[in-house]
Write a structure and sequence with these properties.
Length: 451
């Protein structure tokens, strides 16, 4: 992060010195009011459209604005030195409450991204509106700059999002590409869709006699775009909260399974990260963990779920259909874009066993998805270490030993040893034991699973 900040600020200083020594700056110095007023206007506009960021779904503290349009207009109008100063000052104002490290990283990231996009724009034949008007007294012919305009917009988004993803990956010790896919796939099409707004602002700016007065008219559609963007992100967040509500619905039936899905998901994600799963696969694993028991949420199953003691054999046969029911429900969840089918397959397979004796399909070995094997271990571990009406609560050491005993037949040995390593390093955060009802100790011949 410090390297990005240092490189960005050094680059901005060098560009500023280069501009200050250029013949173009002598023309500006002769009549500085025009640049000061125009740059100040775009700075104010950037602050106004960025003052209420839109929260992104799925990542705490992550947000975005519709300021991409204003940034892109600054790129096309002012070029690297002046445009980068506008972007950096605006970002500093908007992040004044953030910690210093975040501010200087953001500034460096924006400078590098903005200047890189300017380089692409110039390399593909683009010219800057302000300097063309000042030095040559002519407008920029945007009709012939299609490739430069598209290339610079894509470059700006890609560089900024990639630098952020690299920083997050270093912090979280995960895949840069995976984090980029998870964190920015929602944002990319919406951000690039704002580039035409920026281009229209630049075209209006160079109309003789109008300038910044014409650009001011774009404030209303930008605010409208912000609310549309916010509505889309809020809908995604509603979908996420719906999954949380569904995963908690079953736990409302039974005090013994309270927080079960939350804990299983937590353990599964810890194992998945330790095994090096990519961020997209971890996202799928999280959805599957939340929904793995959702097939039990049926009115006719409630008496079985609420029943004290161990279910009868007939009741077990009914309960063992819950992966099938859960898979059907997950597959119909269209608000899990690009993941519903994968989530459904993991939910269906999370009670399969390596030796083929699991249910519902009797799959074995590598035919069982790795995410389902992870979920199976996490599910069994939580079931053994939590209170249930049909078995006693086991100490952590005993639960790990039981998982190891059943590794190779019921559980994936690599997944079991990964969980054991996490426990030995003290990285498993456990639920506080509940004191709500007595335990019913039950001897078991194999490892206990949540049914």
């Amino acid at each position: 992060m410090l390297l990005v900040a240092a490189a960005g600020h050094a680059l901005l200083l060098w560009l500023s010195m280069k501009l200050g020594l250029s013949p173009a700056w002598q023309r500006v110095a002769a009549s500085p009011t025009s640049l000061a007023v125009d740059a100040g206007f775009f700075l104010a506009l950037s602050v106004v459209v960025g003052v209420q960021p839109v929260r992104l779904p799925g990542r705490a503290g992550a947000d975005t604005t519709v300021g991409f349009a204003v940034d892109y207009a600054c790129l096309v109008i002012f070029g690297p030195a002046v445009g980068a100063w506008i972007v950096v000052i605006s970002d500093t104002v908007l992040l004044w409450r953030s910690n210093g490290l975040r501010r200087i990283f953001n500034n460096g990231m924006l400078i590098l991204s903005f200047v890189g996009a300017c380089g692409v724009y110039r390399a593909l034949g683009g010219n800057y509106v302000f300097w063309e008007r000042l030095l040559l007294d002519r407008p920029v012919a945007f009709k012939s700059l299609g490739l430069a305009l598209i290339g610079s917009a894509v470059a700006y988004f890609t560089l900024s999002s990639l630098l952020i993803s690299i920083a997050m990956a270093l912090w979280e010790r995960s895949s840069t590409l995976g984090l980029w896919v998870v964190s920015f796939r929602w944002v990319m099409p919406r951000s690039l869709a704002l580039a035409p707004f920026g281009l229209l602002m630049a075209m209006a700016y160079q109309v003789p006699g109008l300038g910044i007065f014409a650009v001011f008219l774009f404030l209303v559609p930008l605010i409208g775009a912000r609310f549309a963007f916010k509505s889309a992100m809020e809908m995604l967040d509603v979908h996420r909260q719906t999954v949380y509500a569904l995963s908690n619905a079953l736990e409302a039936y039974d005090v013994y399974t309270r927080n079960h899905s939350e804990l299983v998901t937590r353990y599964a994600l810890l194992i998945g990260r330790e095994l090096g799963l990519s961020a997209p696969r971890l996202e799928v694993l999280e959805w599957a963990g939340r929904l793995h028991d959702i097939g039990k949420v049926r009115q006719d199953w409630e008496p079985i779920i609420r029943k004290p003691g161990r279910p009868s054999e007939q009741e077990w046969r009914v309960i063992r259909q819950h992966p099938v029911e859960g898979s059907r429900l997950a597959e119909k969840m269209e608000f899990l874009p690009h993941t519903a089918g994968k989530v459904a397959s993991i939910v269906r397979a999370h009670h399969e066993r390596l030796d083929g004796s699991g249910y519902p399909d009797g799959s074995e070995g590598q035919a069982i998805p790795l995410e389902a094997r992870i979920l199976g271990v996490a599910d069994a571990f939580e079931a053994m270490t939590a209170k249930r009406a049909y078995h006693r609560q086991r100490p952590l050491e005993e639960a790990i030993a039981e998982l190891r005993r059943c590794a190779g037949s019921q559980f994936d040995p690599q997944v079991v040893e990964t969980l054991a390593a996490l426990w030995e390093r003290g990285e498993l955060r456990m639920e506080e034991p509940s004191e709500q009802s007595p335990l019913l100790p039950t001897p078991i011949g194999g490892s206990e699973e949540a049914p």
